[in-house]
Amino acid sequence: MPPLFEIAGLRFSYSGLSSFQLQDLRLSLEEGESVGFLGPNGAGKSTLLKVLAGLLAPTQGAVLFEGKPLVDVPLRERARKVAYLPQTVQFSFPLRVRDIVEMGRHPHLGRFRSMAKEDRIVCERSLELCDASHLSERSFEELSGGERQRVLLASALAQTPRVLLLDEPTNSLDLSHQGRLLSILRRLQAEEGLTLLCATHDLNLAAGSLGKVVLMRDGWIESQGAPSKVLTPAKVRSLYGVSVTQFKGRDGARYLFPKLAKAGRGR
Question: Is residue 231 situated within a structural domain?
Answer without folding.
Answer: yes
